Amino acid sequence: MEEGWVLPNMEHCQNPFGPVKSAVARDWSYIPEGLKGSEGRVIDRLMAYQGLEGVKNGFVRLRYKVRVAKLQGKDPAQDNYNAFFQGNPGTGKTSVARLYGELLAALHIIPSSDFVETSGVKLAANGPSNLGYDVEGLLTGKDDSGVLFVDESYQLLADHSGKQVLDLILKAMSDKIGKLVVIFAGYKEQMEPFLQHNPGLESRIPYTFHFENLTAAELWELFHKTLRDNYANMQFERKNGGRELQIAVNRLMRRSSERSFGNAREVQNCIASMHNRQLERLWNERYMGDHLSDERIKQYFILTRDDMLGPPPNAAFRSKAWDKLQNLVGLEDVKESVESLMKSLQHNYERELQLKPMVQVPLNRVLVGQPGTGKTTVAKLYGQILSDLGLLSRSDVVFKSPADFIGSHVGESEQKTMAILDATVGKVLVIDEAYMLDDGGDNPGSFKASVLDTIVANVQGDSNEDRCILLLGYEENMANLMRNMNPGLSRRFQAARPWRFSNFSPSEMNRILDRKLQLEQLGTTDRALEVAREMLVRASTRPDFANASEVDQCLGVAKNNYIHRLSKLSSEERLSNPLLIPEDFDPDLKRRDENCDQYFRGKLGDDIIQRLTKYELVGREAAGQTNPSVLLPNRLTFKGPSGTGKTTAAEALGRIYYNLGLLSSSEVVQSTPMDFIAQYVGQTAPKTRKQLEKALGKVLVIDGASGLSRGQYGGEALEAILQFISSLSYPKIMVIILSDSSKELDVLFKEYPLLQVQFEEEIVFSDLLPDDCIGMLRHELETLSFQIQDESPLIGPAKLRDAILRLQQATGFQNAKDVKALAKKVAAKAFELKHKTGLEVPPRTTLRESKEEALVATYPLITKCVHEMTEQRRALFLRNLQTSTKAQKTSSLLSSLTHSASQFLKQKPGEKDANQAREDQSDQQTRVKTKATQDKDISTSRDTSRTREGSHDAAQKEESRQRSNKRSANGDPDDIPSAKVAKSENHQREKEVCDDNSKAKDSKSKVKRSVKEMEQLREKEEEAMKRKCHQLKLCPEGWAWRKEGTGFRCEGGSHYISEDELNKR
């Protein structure tokens, strides 16, 4: 056997940390054995303990106090000897408590040294009615005596039942002096609130023993004694093996400041780890066969450096966990970060062997990234690597969420957090979605803040801690957490250098898919694999893209469809179809052959369809050679009036891009400027980003886009949109469409030139032509199961075309919207005629494409409905014109009366009549002229309309004349002779003049009353307009409305509408 350092001969080796000296033990050794008495043997046993200088001194002083009391003739048994034992675990509190009971019994303070051990948790859980035989007998038994040891006694304050037990113990301490001694044990900082529970508690407990942590020299001596007692024939691999033992003690000392440091227990655990590593080495180096050679036997009595200290950090590069980490797809940045950490630990290890101070290398980390990027997998492998290196005593990975830490009342959050920290010593603690602990930093006393404060107070963040905590979450949210909460959190978790888990690229997703297929032994056709990859690329455009989890979802769908497909086949057919086919991955695969021209024919104009078809052709041709998203526009402007098909074109574009695999959905997200603009400073940009993110992978239409430049925060919204657009890159794409009239968009681009650069692609939508309207009408009727048919196909379409032309010339024509309304009107009219006549709606036919039976709508019926819509529009226009004229007259009259009243109240009595007569005469002449001019304009408008209507062929003129004669016979106001109209209007003007003369002669009180009535009328009209604004929900936030200029504005300030526009609604 080679020369080594045999442990039983360590007496000749000096303690590298210096000799362990105990002044109390030295002084005690001077006392002759004959004078120590029976209690001396108890104190001798205490003196053999490492450390505990203060406890030893307390025992000696207690013995001296009792002996002096007896000499003075006093009975010492009548005093209290209850005690507090304060210290960390492993400092010997329980062992010393037994000696304390034996000492008191030897000094005849208590009749018996019976020792009953329990805990605060157990007593609190059982309550005062179920204390147990031993505890209850000791507290309430008349003749029972001994020592009650309550470990972790602060737990008695956790709930009401625990406090009841504590009160019961306090009562027994007073009633059974001389028979019962109670020892409360726990951590020093947790015993302080325990003392504050009852003012009389401290007076009943006169003794406090502090159990200090062992010093480095004491730990070394304890190491030496334990190795000598348990491994007598063990030796180190090298003569300087004492250095490894010194390093092991240094590692323990670096952790001695922790509340959970176990002192003697830590030494025992460390020696057990050494022995386990030795067994692992012997197992891996075992020889074949049962023969044990001398060399083989020699290895059983040698402790190598790796046995004592664990393998060097660079050994991690040979571990299975490291290999698994390297085999993960992607994550290059994370792998590099872990490798850098291992190299830093190796540098520290080399410094440690030279007994140099170590460079702090924290193990706690922040892991940021989207779901499915591998954070959980890496956390498990990271914990295993640390365990393999001996940096953690266990390899367990414990996952917790913020809800596991947060309590429901004051103090509970701290308790739950400490319980989790204590339970995860030696393990990797992963807190997923840790940003949920962020309360914004505005409430330092919140439960969330208490959790983080407790973590900061008990976690140091260096490599000497036997723990590792990983915080997981989204990068932006985690940055807010570090900025808002406890400043120490960032330092303990290296928040400035997080491990970033980037989204997987398409090629990495393909590699993951291939590995999953290989692992599950699933075969696919070449086309099926291609479709699966396209599905993954499409999924990557969604805002909730789950990275690697998308592969599991994709395969899940394919396997379900595969099983369903095979269930319909016979056994022989199932055996011949072992592969996944394209339809298994994408059941709606046939949509890719869909033709935009066929699908939207009749819904859009030919020029628009031709433009969209060009996009479709370019995308299909480029799909096999390059990425189509580079060639196709994804930011467009749709210019045109309402109802010209902009929304339908957006739907068509979304369907084309979806079929090409560029978007994850064909959905069109409709929005208005108010969906982007907020009410307060700093809220618009986040609101805009949220709205844009919601439409990722889809088509976003901003209707009335010119409104983005209005309001106080419109510019902020536009800047946020431009910033978001610049951050988009494949495969995270979306289609954004600005929709408005040409004039409004031109103004917007003039104000924001950068916006026009981003939205260069332009599609102009013109008003529909009559033929376009008829084609769209035909399509809408077919959807309602109607077919257009006429006995005279040459005359019917021509009349319908002319009727539609007149409808378009009417005020308020809305293109496609009116065509859809006309289709519904025609269908309703057909069924109405059926009900009145009792006859079947004209003969049924079949639809041209579907061959289904359909009802017939004739051209005369449709033409009649068009005429009705035209007349309704004209009547509405005249009513609005009259309403506007009346409003102007009311406003003018109110202003005139207010001025007259003011002058009336100011002038002298003698001047009143003459001035009033002149003003009345002037006002009467002005009103007559104004009325005549307005009547002439209305008459001219009507004549112009009739002239335009009469410019068609002779047959139409005759039909129009007959229809006019018929309406005249029925009293239609449009065909009343102009003489009668003039006579009626002259009569009306004469009546108004008389009324004005009578009003001018009224008294002062009547003028005041008139002014008041007009004010009330104006207020009523204003309130009615405000109610209308509220009913139309013009302000989505529900603000009240106020009068402003010639319109109304909401109290929030972001919405305004003029009176003219409001009257049209």
From TrEMBL:
Single GO molecular function: ATP binding
Coiled coil: none
Superkingdom per UniProt: Eukaryota
Pfam families named in the record: AAA
Limits of the AAA+ ATPase domain: 79-215, 362-476, 632-765
Biased composition (Basic and acidic residues): 908-921, 932-962, 982-1026
Region Disordered: start-end pairs: 905-1028
SUPFAM superfamilies, alphabetized: P-loop containing nucleoside triphosphate hydrolases
Keywords: ATP-binding, Nucleotide-binding
CDD domains in alphabetical order: AAA
InterPro entries named in the record: AAA+_ATPase (IPR003593), ATPase_AAA_core (IPR003959), CbxX/CfxQ (IPR000641), CbxX/CfxQ_RuBisCO_ESX (IPR050773), P-loop_NTPase (IPR027417)
Family: Belongs to the CbxX/CfxQ family.
UniProt protein name: AAA+ ATPase domain-containing protein
